Amino acid sequence: MIMKIDFTKIACSLMLLGLASCDDGRLYEEETPISPEGRMVTLTAKLTGLASWPDPSMYVVLAGFNDDSDYALINKSVPVPETDGEEVTIQLSGIKENVTRVELCVINRLRRHILGFYTIDENTLLGSNDIKVDVGALNVGMYHTIQDRVFNASCVNCHGAASSAAAGLYLTAEKSHAAIVGMPSKKIQGMNLVEPGNAAKSALYEALSTDVSITGAWHYNHTGEVVDDDILSMIRQWITHGAKKDE
Ligand code: HEC
């Protein structure tokens, strides 16, 4: 006769007797059990520039993600207020257990995360079923975002922040828009730096997306400056939709 020994049962009996423990050493004191309807996040903010995103190619949402994917598991678009900068309240309900962070962010039409403005992290999220945050005033304008995340972060060191600007091009906040939109390129004859409505005819987009070894037009290879395809596509969308300065 074969006797099957159920080790799980033995382990659990020992546990009941207080002789063993299945504890893995991690404590989740902060975690609030999720309610059957899921968690709810209520976010209040004074957002400026919301209307500048070319919805639905790219739009601002309150969305839930987990670490395994760049795609929103749940999202709610942020309504454009009548007056720019007016306080808006966005409520995202039914947030399930698989969501580990909620972000005020930009997603594309496939609900893929492009960039974030504000993050409610796992600790805050798991601590309650009813999370309320006030993020205050935030400029989420599309051009402001390009200036902040691209030009300030990757370009101004060579283009205008110091005493000189490479190729005479100033990409600093006060000067960038006037310096690029409808302005002729010095590098590529007959092309504007930014041609509203046409990224393929914009020297700035060409610089960022084309390897110098292909065209030979450039001495300095710019393709290493913006390596994130989503950020590059944000610049393309901005040009395609008129290259406007935020109102
Ligand atoms: C390390 C320095 C450096 C950085 C960083 C840099 N550039 Fe440049 N950029 C140059 C140089 C040098 C030239 C002249 C290019 C040449 O001669 O091939 C240039 C030229 C350009 C031109 C062509 C101007 C014209 O009139 O045709 C554009 C557009 C441009 N850069 C955009 C950018 C943008 C956008 C960024 C940031 C994402 C950036 N650059 C970051 C050095 C830099």
Explain what you see.
This protein is α+β, with helices and mostly antiparallel strands and about 250 residues long. It has 2 domains: about 40-140, Sandwich (Immunoglobulin-like); about 145-240, no CATH class. The protein is about 25% helix and about 25% strand. The protein has 7 helices and 7 strands; from the N terminus they run αββββββαβααααα. The strands form 2 sheets. A 4-stranded antiparallel beta sheet has the order 3-2-5-6. A hairpin with a 4-residue loop joins β5 and β6. α3 crosses α7 (about 230-240). The longest helix is centred in the middle third of the chain and has 14 residues, at about 140-155. The chain is elongated. The model is unreliable at about 5-25 (pLDDT under 50). Heme C binds near residues 158, 218, 222 and 226.
